[in-house]
Design a protein that fits this description.
Strand order of the largest sheet of chain B: 4-3-6-7
Radius of gyration of chain B: 33 Å
CATH class of the largest domain in chain B: Mainly Beta
Radius of gyration of chain A: 32 Å
Number of strands of chain A: 16
Distance between the termini of chain A: 63 Å
Distance between the termini of chain B: 98 Å
Number of strands of chain B: 9
Oligomer: heterodimer
Shape of chain A: elongated
Strand content of chain B: 35-45%
Structural class of chain A: alpha+beta
Largest interface: A-B, 38 and 40 residues
Shape of chain B: elongated
Helix content of chain B: 10-25%
Low-confidence stretches of chain B: 1-23, 111-135
Strand content of chain A: 25-35%
Number of domains of chain B: 2
Largest sheet of chain B: 4 strands, antiparallel
Largest sheet of chain A: 10 strands, mixed
Order of helices and strands of chain B: EEEEEEEEEH
Number of helices of chain A: 8
CATH architecture of the largest domain in chain B: Sandwich
Structural class of chain B: alpha+beta
Mean pLDDT of chain B: 69
Chain lengths: 316, 176
């Protein structure tokens, strides 16, 4: 340190100088320099310590806290649910009775979070994760038209030894399947639509990718609370009434105002059959394609709780 | 669905107890207490209130079990007084006809019980500084240790040098 060097130089001078008064002056200057150095070190040290600390801004997920063994306590399942509309059928806003043979959804990167504060997809911002658990890090195809293991919903994946607490946020991606019955598609809806003696067997292939970021599950019971040694679950819910509407509510109900219904698809059927992909729909009926594109980001939910589709920033 | 939530303070709850051990015609006893309350207002996207919607309140100590259940009024409002001895997030879920939302309201405070006629005064305090830096990285620990040691060594060297210089000075003076 330069100040220390000056102080040492002055003291050496003092050793060589024989005159007492001058030596005392040198000693006083050297002492002050030493004190100045010490004080500077004391004041600088806290600044260095604080400056070297890692940045911990509130908005950043702290995923590294996720897998401390002493916190491991329970099991967390994520299930998919198309509600009774997928399993038992529905009546569209334009009076088509639709039943599904299969309703494949291809989910990937399913992640649950303990967010503090709670994530609200309508308010914007990001999930502020205190804990983060990747429940599914690959791709899984589920059939929402089938009941799974005695429950209405279908198991997507589960993670064991997850930290206890309330998982109040969920995110997942939907990507085209690389294999299986939905190969090449994100969603496949196949079934029968009937209206006034007309029957249409349909297959609707959707290959567009989505990323849903959701808040807390809203429903009959509270979900996602993992307790020690216990199993909790979260639910990725798909609201088909956003797409087809609800024939049991009035035409001016908001859900029917925004829904596509089935009639625009029925007009494209030939000889009672319709097998169409989104790209074919784009060329055959651009208006229907555009409406479908606007609706699809809004079908992902967590029970009745809302999600934000990250690619379009649409809140469903 | 946009929901507007707000807390109102103070909120006065009046309890009326008409029954007594000795029945006196038209006798009424009243007790009043001042406390904190949470008012919830729920409405649909189009501004229509969620009238008579199902409300479920979850307390921080047992977030899986409903602490209170009720319905909103015709304007979509619901008011309740949380147990202020339970600090943490109070969750209020409002649902109606397949639409729903949940909101968390942090409540932190202690309720001071004041004797006399059942009156309770609520005191609320906000502990804004919840987490301070208590965990240090290894680099920080090493720097702190090194700083402390350096301080001791520097101080000791300074006084040693000062004594040495003085003694050498005295020696040189005596030689003269």
């Amino acid at each position: 340190m330069p100040l220390q060097g000056i102080a040492n130089l002055l003291e050496n001078l003092c050793d060589e100088v024989l005159r007492v008064k001058l030596c005392k002056v040198y000693q006083e200057i050297a002492m002050r320099i030493h004190l100045l150095s010490l004080a500077g070190l004391i004041f600088l040290a806290p600044g260095i310590i604080i400056g070297c600390s890692p940045d911990q801004t509130p908005g950043e997920p702290q995923a590294q806290q996720q897998s401390q063994p002493q916190e491991a306590a329970g099991t967390l399942q994520v299930r998919a649910n198309g509600e009774e509309r997928a399993r038992e059928g529905l009546v569209s806003k334009d009076g088509w009775r639709i039943t599904f043979d299969n309703l494949y959804a291809n989910l990937a990167d399913v992640t649950a979070y303990q967010s503090e504060p709670a994530f609200d997809p309508e308010q914007g911002g990001e999930i502020q994760a205190q804990e983060k658990v990747v429940v599914l890090d690959e791709v899984q195809t589920v059939d929402l038209a089938q009941s799974g293991d005695g429950q209405d919903s279908v198991l997507v994946a589960e993670a064991s030894n997850v930290p206890a607490g309330q998982y109040n946020a969920l995110s997942w991606r939907m990507v085209p399947a690389t294999e299986g019955p939905a190969q090449g598609q994100t969603m496949v809806m196949s079934g029968t639509a009937e209206k006034e003696g007309r029957t249409i067997n349909f297959v609707l292939n959707i290959d567009r990718e989505f990323e849903y970021v959701c808040g807390e599950y809203v429903g009959d019971e509270r979900k996602g609370i993992v307790q020690v040694g216990d199993t909790a679950d979260l639910e990725a819910t798909f609201h088909l009434d956003h797409l087809f509407g609800d024939g049991e509510t009035s035409a001016d109900d908001p859900i029917n105002q925004g829904a596509l219904g089935f009639e625009p698809l029925a007009t494209l059927a030939q000889n009672g059959n319709l097998q169409i992909s989104t790209s074919q729909l784009q060329s055959q009926s651009p208006q229907t394609y555009q409406q479908l594109q606007e609706i699809l980001p809004s079908i992902g939910h967590v029970g009745e709780g809302h999600c934000r589709e990250a690619n379009t920033q649409t809140v469903g | 669905m946009n929901s507007q939530w707000k807390t109102i303070i103070p909120f006065v709850v009046i309890s009326v107890f008409g029954a007594s051990t000795k029945a006196i015609a038209h006798g009424v006893r009243m007790q009043a207490r001042e406390t904190q309350a949470i008012e919830v207002n729920a409405e649909y996207d189009n501004g229509e209130p969620m009238a008579e919607a199902q409300v479920t309140v979850y307390a921080p100590n047992d977030p899986a079990t409903p602490w209170l259940e009720g319905t909103t009024d015709n304007n979509g409002n619901f008011v309740f007084a949380p147990d202020s001895s339970q600090s943490g997030n109070w969750s209020i879920q409002v649902r109606q006809a397949g639409h729903g939302s949940i909101v968390n309201i942090p409540v932190e405070g202690n309720q001071a019980q004041a004797g006399g006629n059942g009156t309770t005064e609520a005191e609320s305090s906000v502990s804004g500084v919840a987490n301070t830096r208590t965990n240090f990285t290894p680099l920080q620990t090493i720097l702190m240790g090194a700083t402390g040691v350096w301080g001791f060594i520097g101080t000791a060297l300074f006084f040693m040098r000062g004594n040495k210089s003085n003694s050498e000075l005295r020696r040189s003076e005596s030689q003269r």
